[in-house]
Amino acid sequence: MPNNDEKIKEDVKNQLLWDSRVNADVLTVDVQDGQVILSGAVLDRIARESAERDAWSVHGVASVVNLLAILNYPIGPILNDDELKNKIYDTFHWHPTIDASKISVSVNEGLVTLRGITNSYWEKVKAEEFTYDIKGVISIVNELAVVPGNMISDQAIAEAVIQAFARNKFIDIDSIDVKVENGSITLSGIVRSWTGYQLAQEIVQSTLGVVNIDNKLFVKE
Questions:
Q1: Which of 3.80.10, 1.10.3470, 3.30.1340, 2.60.40 would CATH assign to domain 3-70?
Q2: What does the buried/exposed string (b/e) look like for 25-56 if buried means 16 or more CB atoms within 10 Å of the residue's CB?
Q3: Prediction pTM value
Q4: pLDDT digits 0-9 by tens, 170-191
Q5: 3-class DSSP state for residue 134?
Q6: How far apart are CA 118 and CA 107, in angstroms?
């Protein structure tokens, strides 16, 4: 491991140890060519997202792969798989942004699989986030397919994303390549900060017509 990777690894570990939301003692940090890989288990989605932000905040980090599982130990009675499944369906029905009639849920010892279709990529993301917030959910396999209500051409999707990037002060559009094929979008190139990386991801997720995202952006300060 290059010396720079060793320094990044040490700094990420110290950042995780500093963060009271994260139990750093049970997490593993690996670094290769500036890419940080987080593995282990945390108690909830807040801890998982906090650990990722902590890694991104360290100088020299080019990308972060978050493999952290969520233990999500429930407070109070433990729900069995059928009860957990019903709880997930109830949650979807309460959220107007989710069309629960198009989603099927299966649960096996707290491991949740989501199948079916959503009208947009952000709806797919929200379905997973809402599920993670339910106590007793350990892990999620999100197999939801994105099927837009109206077909949008690849060119129109690419133009919408590029224009949104150009309007954003944290993103240098000249440093990013956007490719779209059958609604699947690939981002490659460089952003100057974790904020830019996150905003690029959010912009693509919110763009109509996007069915899949391959984010290959690297952070270069």
A1: 3.30.1340
A2: eebebebeebebebebbbebbebbbbbbbbbb
A3: 0.75
A4: 999 999 999 999 999 999 999 9
A5: coil
A6: 20
